[in-house]
């Protein structure tokens, strides 16, 4: 019986890749993962720097507003004190002293006949120099108080000018990261750095979930363009009062490891509109050379309007 000859299997058929390709692909993959981790860390670091800068600018603005309020109180107190002193130190100049002719004792008829009639001219009124001196002192005090008031006014105007300049600088610094319209929010979303959640919130004591936090509008001032809001973050309530339009609020969130931002872009009667943004990537640990970096956890993408 003839034995059927079976052709020897080709060893190259069991290996779809040529020799040496697997290590090269592993090196390329490790390089891509390392580059991705470096990029994420760099973006996180830039975001933290920007948030720190925003918080510092907000603190400076609050301090300047407190200084202006103190100067206004000081100015009002000085004006009130000047008015009281003016009323208390008003002096009425006494009338001039008249010198009357002394009455002569009655004389005898003979003496009256011998005495020749004499006419005496009245003496001029005596002028009291003490009144003039006191009036000069009062006038000097009033002038000094007026100078103090003018100096305080100048300080207030200078502080206001400085505050306006800092506010303008703050707006310029924040223009690149704060959106004012829905279209600008979409542009920021396209950068791929953060997730954005728009909201239209009416005045209510109950909380409404917007992204990672809860919001409850308590007051909306259309004249001053400010609002009061209570935030629910990590099961804790945070009170935010007299927040200005377009003023960013940075809220620390333990779930994200980074700050969540809130911005109101429109204030109407008992209603505000705006958005909440959160980091798209959670904060990752630094990459070591001994271990491969962990893949970043990505939050849900896409702009959400609520």
CATH class of the largest domain: Mainly Beta
Shape summary: elongated
Low-confidence stretches: 285-302
Structural class: alpha+beta
Largest sheet, spatial ordering of strands: 6-7-8-1-9
Q: Based on the structure given, which CATH architecture of the largest domain is correct?
A: Sandwich
Number of helices: 4
The percent range for helix content is 40-55%
SSE layout and pairings?
Elements: H1 21-88, H2 109-114, H3 129-174, H4 182-190, E1 194-202, E2 208-210, E3 213-221, E4 226-233, E5 236-244, E6 249-252, E7 259-268, E8 271-279, E9 304-305
Parallel strand pairs: 1-9
Antiparallel strand pairs: 1-8, 2-3, 3-4, 4-5, 6-7, 7-8
Helix pairs in contact: 1-3
Could you explain the architecture of this structure?
- The chain is α+β, with helices and mostly antiparallel strands and about 300 residues long.
- It is built from 4 helices and 9 strands; from the N terminus they run H-H-H-H-E-E-E-E-E-E-E-E-E.
- The chain has a 5-stranded mixed β-sheet with strand order 6-7-8-1-9, with helices on one face. It has a 4-stranded antiparallel β-sheet with strand order 2-3-4-5, with no helix packed on it.
- Helix 1 (about 20-90) packs antiparallel against helix 3 (about 130-175).
- The radius of gyration is 43 Å and the shape is elongated.
- Residues about 285-300 have low confidence and may be disordered.
